[in-house]
Amino acid sequence: MPSRRRTLLKVIILGDSGVGKTSLMNQYVNKKFSNQYKATIGADFLTKEVQFEDRLFTLQIWDTAGQERFQSLGVAFYRGADCCVLVYDVNSMKSFDNLNNWREEFLIQASPSDPENFPFVVLGNKVDVDGGNSRVVSEKKARAWCALKGNIPYFETSAKEGINVEEAFECIAKNALKSGEEEEIYLPDTIDVATNNQPRSSGCDC
């Protein structure tokens, strides 16, 4: 069988602990949501194949721990990223205020060749909570922050309800593609792209 042309796109999800990073990833890849909260230890990743314009891409989505004690692991996981997703909880002002720290930390650790134009996408998660009555960060405030940082694409999501998750990751994939186009790899269909390009993290059930 002839080889198909694939591109591996590495996406990193960052944000405070508990904002829903793991839930967003699981909703997108597995169409599942769990009410049981379990903090990510270190980092984990899932992969999903997506197709644009008759080309096949493997999205490798890295879910990193939000706790500060794991942030020293950042360098290894951030390097080679094609897009960074910043997630906050619309019901937590602190998680929104910390977006800047996560963005700056990523740029320092990942050292992208063109930091000014590196693609970020911001997700305001948990819009479903309490029917929106617990919300403390307005969409206007979030969009204003994104505009100041170079017009970062912004989506309001609910990992629980699946609101805007598919649309957000479609945007993430397209932005990753713009940044990672030059890293095309040619592999037979039988090869697992993810395991041949990154080491598995412990406890990964991909």
Automatic annotation (TrEMBL):
Q: Which GO terms describe its cellular component?
A: plasma membrane; vacuolar membrane
Q: How does this chain sit within the bilayer?
A: Lipid-anchor
Where does this polypeptide localize? Cell membrane
Q: Quick check: keyword Protein transport in the entry?
A: yes
GO molecular-function terms, A-Z: GTP binding; GTPase activity
User: Which UniProt keywords are listed?
Assistant: GTP-binding, Lipoprotein, Membrane, Methylation, Nucleotide-binding, Prenylation, Protein transport, Transport
Q: Does the keyword Transport apply?
A: yes
Q: Which GO terms describe its biological process?
A: protein transport
What InterPro entries does the annotation carry?
P-loop_NTPase, Small_GTP-bd, Small_GTPase
Its chief place of residence is: membrane
Residues annotated as coiled-coil are none
Q: Which residues cross the membrane?
A: none
Biological role:
Protein transport. Probably involved in vesicular traffic.
Q: Which PANTHER family match?
A: RAB FAMILY (PTHR47981), RAS-RELATED PROTEIN RABG3F (PTHR47981:SF4)
Q: What is this protein called?
A: Ras-related protein Rab7
Question: Native species of this protein?
Answer: Cucurbita maxima
